[in-house]
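hey so u asked for the seq, here:
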Amino acid sequence: MSGHDTLCTVDVFYGPRAQGNQHHILYRADPDWYEIPAEHGNTPNLILLSGGDGVFTAQFFSCGQPTYRCGSGNLAIATYIDEELASAASNWRLLTDAGEIQLGVDRQSAYYLDKALAQRPLQNRNFWQRLVRQPVINGRYCGHRNDYVLLEVSQPLIELNINSPALRRFSQRALIVVYRPPSGAVQLRYFAPQYGPAEDAATGSASVQAASYLRQQYPKRYAHQPLQIQQCSPAGGYLYLTGHQQQTLVRGRTAVRRKGANHSSFVYTNIDTKE
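ran it, structure tokens below
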């Protein structure tokens, strides 16, 4: 085995008033990982990373359970490759269970490119309205039965209190809820109690689906300019999304945690979070 045997922690979507997502990365150049090392079986947000020369492979886990896709994990990997592996390149191919992702680091921040899932009209709006306990303006099913449902509601999301037991019992879809204020960042919250904690700390993957919905539904406002999304959870923070051909480019603030003998320091990318 060759590579870095120690666990490296990268915070994503970190900043003022936002705890961010902590991702823990184990890296080896080759061969690929076939199982989680026993000592890390219960590590949350674990990434097993391998490869090099511009092409990497990643597996995502949370407390031993595989995670199919992880947007904040993509940003953590880009930051890790740039900071810890000191890659001469500035963009890379990442192979995951969900497909190939293009990611990189530039003068602004870490970023990745992702394509939204196919969307179709919402059905049974009354059920979803009862579940979120708010008027639902519109909605979409995203991807397959075990992917996402997206709801646009008419009230700010700070006090949103969904019926988690009903979501867990009646649907395999994770729930994305968005609210469009008259000005400023679009608000987003994401719930998947069927697969772990009731609310995801901060998610880039859900924001890609939301960006696609907003650009299709409100093209005059969102189709031709960068989109700012605020995830209204304790860990939330801001995400920045721009259209790039048929994909969405996602940016977020990242921080590598470097532990010294008597202290820990944060090394931030220099994205302007406007927080």
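Residues 3 and 11 are 21 Å apart (CA to CA). The chain has two domains: 2-111+251-268, 119-245.
lmk if thats what u needed
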